[in-house]
Amino acid sequence: MRPINFISRDGLKVYGYITIPNNIKKGQRVPLIVNPHGGPYGVRDYWGFNPETQLFASRGYATLQVNYRGSGGYGKEFFLKGNKQIGRKMLNDLEDAVAYAKTLDFIDGNKTAIYGASYGGLATLGSLVKTPDLYTCGIDYVGVSNLFTFFESFPEYWKPYMPQFNEQWYNTEDENDQKIMTEVSPALHVDKITKPLFVIQGANDPRVNIDESDQVVKSMRARNIEVPYMVKYDEGHGFSHEENRVALYKAMLGFFAQHLK
After folding, report:
1. 173, 182, 198, 189: which is closest to 249 by C-alpha?
2. Angle at 83 between CA 78 and CA 87, to 5 degrees
3. pLDDT digits (tens, 9 = 90+) for 26-81
């Protein structure tokens, strides 16, 4: 796991990490998995043991983790630069990170997947809509797909945080923000997704309602596009039962092997 940094297209210094397989031979290039963290605000990836990235490395993939604008740990100015940038400059940071990774002599620039959970799932879907040619495939794990239905489904205990959501995400009562929400909600632009997609959802998720995943899968299947969809009915916002996690990673690794190997 190596620390990285690069300058974004608008001049912001962005940090992250890239985990690579052991013993890459000289001249060997490996596929890349871009793994945006959840949150998104105030959350960040850290250097250290990560079972997921190590699993991917053991199978021959490099994993790119980007602390895009709005992530925590880089000061107030960097944090605030993420406000109202979901689906916009936050995705630009991921694209710029991929461009940086492709300059590394061990990355296969023609095989790039994107995989994320929660907000990372939204970033995955948004990236497949915004820059479909950049990615080979994507995995959306308990991800938001429609900002309108996501906000409507907020549990009662989230209501006190609405002023913060309105400032950081978007304000559903603001006409300009509504237009942006329409532009950056992947479920409203599923016709632009042209690359293979695997969707994963817990049926009892109180944070990201299963309707968020259903919308995407139904729309794509209505276009006769095959979308593998794993739903576990004893799970919520992320799988916690061992047997479900084993099934999840087996399916995930199979999906990556099918499209990246």
Report:
1. 198
2. 110
3. 999 999 999 999 999 999 999 999 999 999 999 999 999 999 999 999 999 999 99
Report pLDDT digits (tens) over 161-214: 999 999 999 999 999 999 999 999 999 999 999 999 999 999 999 999 999 999
Query: Which one-letter amino acid corresponds to residue 172?
Result: T
Query: Which one is catalytic: 45, 205, 213, 219?
Result: 205
Active site residue: 189, 211, 214, 237, which one? 237
Q: Is 205 a catalytic residue?
A: yes
Dump strand ranges (E) for the chain: 2-7, 13-19, 30-34, 62-67, 107-117, 137-141, 197-202, 229-232
Structural domains in the chain? 2-260 (3.40.50.1820)
What's at 96, amino acid-wise?
D
Residue 59 and residue 142: Cα distance in Å, rounded?
Answer: 24
**Of these residues, 8, 118, 153, 213, which one is catalytic?**
118
Q: What phi-psi label fits residue 23: left (phi over 0), alpha (psi between -120 and 50 degrees) or beta?
A: left
